[in-house]
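User: Assemble these into one structure.

Assistant: Restating your components, then the assembled model:
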Amino acid sequence: MTTPTSTNVDLTSKIPNNVGLSDDPKLQRALERWLPNYLEWWNDMGPTDFADKPVYLRTAISVDRGGWANYAHVKMPDYRWGIFLTPNEQEATIKCGDDAGAPAWNDVPGEHRNALRRIIVTQADTEPASVEQQRLLGHTAPSLYDLRNLFQVNVEEGRHLWAMVYLLHKYFGRDGRDEAEELLNRRSGDEDKPRILGAFNQPCDHWLSFFAFTMFTDRDGKYQLAALAESGFDPLARTTQFMLTEEAHHLFVGETGLGRIIKRTAQLEREDPNGDVRNQGGIDFDLIQRTINYWFTYSLDLFGGEISSNASNFFASGLKGRFREDRYEDHKALTGTYNLPVVEKDKLLEKEVPLRNAMNEILRDQYIKDCERALKRWNKHIAEEGSSTVLTLPSRRFHRHQGIYADHHFNPDGELISEDEWESNKSKWVLTPADNDYLVSIMKPCYEPGKFANWIAPPSKGLDGKELDFEYVKLHD
Amino acid sequence: MGAESNTDVTVDFEVDPGSYRHWKVSYDGAIARVAMDVDPNGGLRSDYELKLNSYDLGVDIELADIVRRMRFEHPEVRVVVMTSGNDKVFCAGANIQMLGSSTHGWKVNFCKFTNETRCEIEEATEASAQVYIAACNGTTAGGGYELALACKEIYLQDDGNSAVSLPEVPLLGVLPGTGGLTRLVDKRRIRRDRADVFSTTAEGMRGKRAVQWNLVDDVFPRSKFDEKIAARCEALVADAGELASGERKGVTLGKLGVESLDNGRKYSSVEVTWDDEARTATLTIEGPTAEDVALAERGAEAMHEAGDQLWALRAYRELDDALLHLRSNHPNVGLVVVRAKGDAKRVLAHDSALVKTRDHWFVREVLLHMGRVLRRMDNTSRSFFALGDAGTAFAGNLLELALASDRFYLLDDPDNVVHVGISDLSEGALPMSTGLTRIQARLYGEADKAEALVGRRDLLGPEDADDAGLVTMLLDDIDWDDDVRIAIEERVSLSPDALTGMEQNLRFVGPETPDSKIYARLSAWQNWIFIRPNATGPEGALTLYGRPERPAFDWRRV
C-alpha cells in the first residue's frame, strides 16, 4: 500500500496538469485507482507491438503558448497523459438557452447532473474506441511519418479520455467513477460490450479507412467538442476547448492523408497507359469515392436525431451550444424554426421544426460545410494533376443508420429508392468486403526513413520543421 | 391541439391474431414467444407516431388479446417469453406524444386498461401456470419496464447500454402509472430508498447494479442472450408443477356476434343501450337457458367441446366488451342500470355444474375470466345501479353484478316474486382485487350476516334478501317506478368527478393487495398529477416534452 504522500508526488509528476491535482486528495484517490486500469487497457487495446519504440510525440505539459506542444522521442506507455483546462480570460457565462448570460456553473447543478453525465460519457466513449479500432494499423504504415501520426492521434485520444475521466471523477462522485470504469470495459466492435455509438464499432482495418476516419469521424468530434465548448458547465467548456487544439491535428492527418492518396491516384492514372490505377498498385477513384460515402455517412449518424428533444433540452438548459455560439445574436433560439425534408408516405416533404429541436441538424450543417471545403480542395489537386475525376459528398440522407432517414433507402443524390434498388447498387456506392481485401493486399509497411508506399504521395513538408527522412519512429536501437 | 379531438375515435376492443399490427407471436411446444414490434404508423389516432416500440391503447388491446388467447387457445404453453422484435429497444413505454395530446379521460382509460392487462399477465402466471418472463433485449424504459415488472422474471441484455428505467418523474413530471412503483416495492420488494433513487434517475440502471438492486433477475451478454433465455425457459418448463386436468386442446375464441343498434350494442346474451342525453345506459345480461344448464351438467368434456359457445364464457366475453365500449366510447354516460334476466334456480344449477368440474383447465379458465370481467366492472368509473324487478335473476354469478353495483334495488311484489340466490361462486371463486368476496365487501361491517350466508343455497325471497343485507332498497310495486326514476335522475345530476372518487372509495373496503393498490393508490395519484399544471398545464413537463420550451413548475407542495 502506498502512502498518500508518495502517491501525491508520483501522480503529479506523471500527470502534467493545471487543475490543482497535487492539492486535491479526492481526485488523487480516484485517479490512483483508475490509472493502473487505464494502463492495462492501453497495453491490451492500444497500438500493438510498438510499446518499446521511441516515437517523436508531441506532449502537452502546460497550457501556455508553446507549452502544449513539446516534441521528443517517447515510448508510448511512458507518454505523460495530462489534464488541462483552457484558462478563463473573463468571468464565464452560460452561452445559450433559457439562462444565457447568467454566470456559468463551476460545479454540476443537480438539475442537470444526469444530462451532463450522459453527454460526457458519450463523448468520452469515442476516445478509447478509436484507439481500439486503429490498434493494428502500425503494421501496415505507408511511412514512418504516417506511423508517427497514427501514434500521435492514438496517445491524444488517450489523453482526451483522461480529460473526460477527470470531469467524471472530479464532478460526478461515485457514479462518475463507475462510468469511468465502464469506459475501459466497453470494446469497439464487441458484440457484447460495444462502444456506444455506431461509427466507433465499425472496423478500421487499413489506412484508407484510417484517413477517412480521421477526416470524417474525428471531424464530428471537432463539432461536438466545439458545441460542448459553449457549455454553461465551465469545466466542460474549458476542457473541450483545450481538446480542440489537439483535435485539429487529427483532422490535419485525415484531410492531408486522403489528399495525398488522391494526388497519388491521379498521378498513377496518368502514368498507366490504360489509366488503370490498380494496375499500378494504387487506389482507384471509385474506391476512394465509396470510402468517402461510407465514412461520411457513418459520421453523420453521430450527430443524433434530426428532430430531437434531447438536443432541445441540452440547448435550453445551456449544456450544449451551437458551433461558435458567439456568432449568433439570439442565444435563446426559442422562436425560430428549421425546415427539413422528412419521409411521409414514401415521399419527401418539407417539415418545419422548432429551432431548438433541430440543434443536431444545425451542427450537422456546419460539419457538412466543412467537409465540402475539403472536397473542393481535393478536387483542385485532382484537376492540377490533369485528371477529370470529381469526388463528391453523398446526400445527408444516403446510407444512414440513425435518425429519420435510417429506415428508408436513398441514392447518393438523396432520392428515395426501393430496397431492391439499394441492394443492387450498394456495392457501387459503399465499401465492400472485396474493397477491403484489395486495400489490405496493397498495404505493406514502408518503414525506411523518407520512403513512402506507392499508393500515397509524400506530404509537402515534415513535422515540427523536421525533414521527411527524419526518423519519426525509431524502430531499431 | 389534438387534445380535444380524442373523442372522435371510436375504439374497438375486439381484435384477433390475423389483425395484429404490433406483435409477433410464435409457439414452440410449451414455450411461446411474444415479440413487440410496433408499427410506427399503426396508432389509434394519427397525431402521433409510435416510434421505438412505444405503445398506445391499440397496441395494448392486441397484447390483452394475446394474453387471453394464450390461456384459452394455447393451454399447452407453460412459459411465455415477452421480448422485442426491435434490435435496440425492448419497449420505450407509453408514447409521450400520444399522452401529451390526449384528453384527461383518454389518458385515464388508457392507463386503466393497460393496468388490467398487466394484472392479467400476473394472474396467468399465478393461476394458469403460464409463466411470463421478460427478455429485455434492449432499452426498457417507463411502461416498457412496467411491462417487464408484470412478468415473473426479468432478464436484461448486458451490453453496456441497455438499461431498465422509470424516467416518468424526472423527465415527464408524472408517475410510472402502470403499476411500476407498486411492483418495485410490493412485488420485487426493492428497498424503498433504492426505489426512490431508481425512480428519479432518468437513465435508469443496467448491468450488475440492476441485478444487485433486484431490478432484474439477471443480465446476460448479447451474444449469449437468446441461449440463456432458452435455457431458462426449459428449466421453467421442467420445474412446472402439476397441471389442472383435461386434455390440453385449445379453445378458439371466435368473433363476438355483435349487432350495432342506433343507441346500443346487442350480443347473444348481453345488450347495452345508452341514452347520451340522459347520461344513462342499461346493461342487460340474459342468464343461462335450460339448454345451457343441461350442457354444463354434462360435465367438463362437454363444456370443453362447446368452447366459446359455453354460456359462462360467451356471456362474460360479451359483458367485458360492453363495459370496455362504455368506458372508452361513451364518456357522458354516468350511470349504468344493470339488469340480470332469467331464472334464478337455473343460474344456481349452472354455477353448481361449473364448480363441480373446476379442476378441468378449461372450466378453471372460464371462472378466472368471469372473475376478471367482474373486477373490470369494479374498476369502471360509472355509477352502477342493479335493478331487481320482475323477470330478473340476481343469483349465483349474476348476484355478483348486483354486489359489484353501487346500489341494488329489489322489487317486493307478492304477484311477481323476484328471487336472489347465492352459489358457490360467490364464496371465493370470483374475488375482488382486494381478495375479498363481494359478499364480504358488502357486509364488511356485519360479519355475522356474511357468516350466516356461507353455504346457504336456497333461493331468497325479497324480504329474506333484504334481511340478509344484500339489498340497498326494497321497494313495493307502487313505489318502484317513481323511486327508481328519482334515484337515477338524482344520481346523474351529481358531479361526475366526486362520484368517481366516492364510488372507488366505498367499493373497496377492507384490506389492500398489490393489485388494489395499483388501482386505488397509484392510479388515483397519477390521475391527480395528470390534471396538475406541473404536468399538463401550458408550462407542464408532459406538455412540453419534445418541445423547445422547458417546463416551469409551481414549487408549492400540495
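Residues 104-127 of chain B form the longest helix (24 residues).
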